Amino acid sequence: MATTLEKGISREVEIPAAGFCMRASLEQPMSGRGIIVFANGFGSRRFHESNRIVADALESADFATLMVDLLAPEEEEDPQFIFDTSLPARRLAHVVRWLKRHLDYGDWPLGIFGSGTCGAVVLEIAACMPEFIDAVVTRAGRPDLAETWLPWVEAPTEMIVGSEDLHILAVNQRAMGRLECPCQLVEVPGASHLFSEPGAMDTVATLARAWFERNMAPSQGWEQA
């Protein structure tokens, strides 16, 4: 049974997935135009400041955000998960189904955001679940880890990479040739892999917000909830 969300709430939720319970943080502004799922895996937790900067920008544009940890703390410390996408992808699919079945968000558009390895995870899910995913943004992503899935991605996709992150930049440039969906690769001038330079994450947030605004049409589902 779906659960109607109260407007303007902030709460922690748990999402079950095949014997594992994922922890997530849900932010819902007073009015809304869609929901963005932040996929966090190896080396990225939902409370990281970089995630919060992007989420704040999206929430200011009336998007709800769901930040979910796809790996348990002990899994995140296990080197075998550095380049593993299969387990996080299966769990992200559970998150998408949970949103559809257990949250009464009407016809809200759904976007997904992922960094590093989870950049590959969100692309795989966009390819596998095209009926649910309306837009994708990756930051310093590894699309090479989802190479076989790239031609099947239908959702408009933006890949954001630091201009000084030369290896990841080359990987994303090659991925552009495999994607058949509307897509763009944006370089953040002077930024390295972690976007730790002053203002770099603010630029990422601005780019992500503009992409989701452009590609996730407002719906009436929020007002009806």
Summarize the SSE layout with pairings.
Blueprint: E1 3-4, E2 9-17, E3 20-28, E4 34-40, H1 49-60, E5 63-69, H2 73-76, H3 86-102, E6 103-104, E7 110-115, H4 117-128, E8 135-139, E9 157-162, H5 166-176, E10 183-188, H6 200-215, H7 221-224
Parallel strand pairs: 1-6, 4-5, 4-7, 7-8, 8-9, 9-10
Antiparallel strand pairs: 2-3, 3-5
Helix pairs in contact: 1-6, 3-4
Name the CATH architecture. Answer: 3-Layer(aba) Sandwich
Low-confidence stretches: 1-5, 220-225
What's the SSE pattern? EEEEHEHHEEHEEHEHH
Distance between the termini: 14 Å
CATH superfamily annotation: Alpha/Beta hydrolase fold, catalytic domain
Total separate domains: 1
Structural notes for this entry:
The protein has 225 residues and is an alpha/beta fold. It has one domain: Alpha/Beta hydrolase fold, catalytic domain (Rossmann fold, 3-Layer(aba) Sandwich), CATH 3.40.50.1820. 34% of the residues lie in helices and 26% in strands. Helix 1 links the parallel strand 4 (34-40) and strand 5. Helix 1 (49-60) crosses helix 6 and helix 3 (86-102) packs across helix 4. The longest helix has 17 residues, at 86-102. It is globular.
